[in-house]
Write a structure and sequence with these properties.
alpha+beta; OB fold (Dihydrolipoamide Acetyltransferase, E2P); 2 domains; seven-stranded mixed β-sheet; 7 helices; elongated
Length: 194
């Protein structure tokens, strides 16, 4: 009985998969297996610091925390964002990629009725502002607890602000500020509460 070249190739691939080393090498071959691997894989593609929250949201959508609801957009949208990260070299390009991915993969919006409650939870008083271009890192006092958020905002120390869509990142290093934050929440919007 003669074995074809194709059968040999299949046997080789199956054998290689069985003995492939674990960890990140395995994840890199088949794609990330969790949020941390996703961030590790795609962080190298981020050329504009302002794109980091978008990358984090896409990774969190692919790998939600236990008990989290599905993301407001379908997973194909977030795969599209991650695929096109290397093309985003300006803030304007960010908008173009997001728009193209939304158009290609259509939004599926969720309505959970908790928006007002979430808005109250995501606010606090600005203690410190560190500017990094258009991006701002804000130290916030939220009911006696200090935390850092990062977003685009024109705020001053003492303002009470509200933010949306926080994505936490532990041990985040800002190249622009040459500083590592224990944890920073990357947010979509920041607004002063009147």
């Amino acid at each position: 009985m003669r074995i074809s070249n194709r059968a040999c190739h299949i046997v080789f691939i199956v054998a290689a998969m069985m003995f492939w080393p674990g960890g990140n090498a395995y994840a890199g071959f088949f794609g990330p297996n969790n949020f941390e691997e996703c961030v590790e894989k795609y962080a190298k593609d981020v050329m504009v610091e302002r794109v980091t929250p978008l990358m984090l949201r896409a990774c969190r959508a692919k790998f939600p925390k236990a008990g989290e609801q599905n993301p407001p957009l379908n997973i194909d949208y977030y795969d599209c964002i991650l695929k096109h990260l290397p093309e985003i070299d300006t803030i304007l390009a960010t908008t173009g990629v997001q728009s193209s991915c939304k158009q290609a993969h259509g939004p599926k919006w969720k309505h959970d009725g908790e928006s007002a409650n979430i808005a109250r939870q995501n606010q606090g008083k600005v203690l410190q502002v560190q500017r990094a271009g258009q991006y701002h890192y804000l130290e916030i006092d939220q009911n006696g607890q200090k935390l850092w958020i990062a977003g685009v905002a024109e705020v001053a120390v003492g303002d009470t602000v509200r933010w949306s869509k926080p994505t936490p990142m532990k041990g985040y290093y800002s190249k622009t500020l040459d500083r590592t934050f224990d944890e920073v929440l990357f947010v979509s919007t920041v607004e002063v509460v009147q």
